[in-house]
Amino acid sequence: MNALIRGPRLNTGYSMADTSSTSFAPKDLVVMVPAVGSALALCWEVGSFLPVGGAAFSYFSITEHIAFAVPALPFAILVASAGYAGFLTRGRGPRAKHANWPYLLLVFIFASAAAYVSRTALFAVVAFAAVLIGMVELVAARESRRTAKMVAGLMILLALAVAQGVDFTRGRLNKEELAEIAVADGTVRAVVFRAGERGVLLYNRPAHRFQFLRWDAVHRVDWDRAPIKPDRAFGTMNLRD
Q: Does the chain have fewer CB atoms within 10 Å around its N or its C terminus?
């Protein structure tokens, strides 16, 4: 009788626990996305100091480091939102029974070779991500695999943020135009890496040396800038009248 009342059971491809775990919660979105985005921005700030050296990190206060990380916050919030959306939709389609080992191995080999040739930290993190995903598929139990993938995804995002900060600093120090800093004993041509309340951190590219100058020793800072083109939508200003 019970079997007749309940009727046949439909095979939907995922259990009731899967649907409850992937339900959209606005409060989780409001809390998790800003928290993860802020963590990504701070990791980017930490990574930007790795090519400089750990000692230079202490020249600036925590408040200043947070302010330095603000430019990266919009992109970090976007990445955190995309990751949260991917986590919500994870598992609603058909699941693979085994890890795609040939694909992960190919990604690891390519990323490792690219990291070695280009000396780019981003490719090294991609290789690390391939190894981490393969370990999750191999070691994690079926019941805890979803949580393990979430933790692994967060670790990969944080590592990518650090790597992006490393590569961004390398690009700045090698390609940015040199500024002229007037000091008491002359003029210094260097890249202005960071400027805080106590002083300014410079990179003397010809000498391959970093230098921290206090503001009382700096008289003036000049730097070149490409001409700012006028916006055609608003026209050009006529200053002759």
A: C
pLDDT band at 2 (very low <50, low <70, confident <90, very high): very low
In this structure, are residues 188 and 222 in contact, taking their beta carbons and an 8 Å threshold?
no
Other C-beta atoms within 10 Å of 33: how many? 20
Query: Per-domain residue ranges for the chain?
Result: 23-172, 176-222
- Quick check: 188 and 204 in contact, CB under 8 A? yes
CB 70 within 8 A of CB 2: no
d(CA 67, CA 73): 10
Q: Rounded CA gap, 39 and 157, in Å? A: 10
Of 83, 235, 58, 92, nearest to 160 by C-alpha is 83
| pTM (2 d.p.) | 0.71
Q: How many helices (H) and strands (E) does the chain have?
A: 9, 5
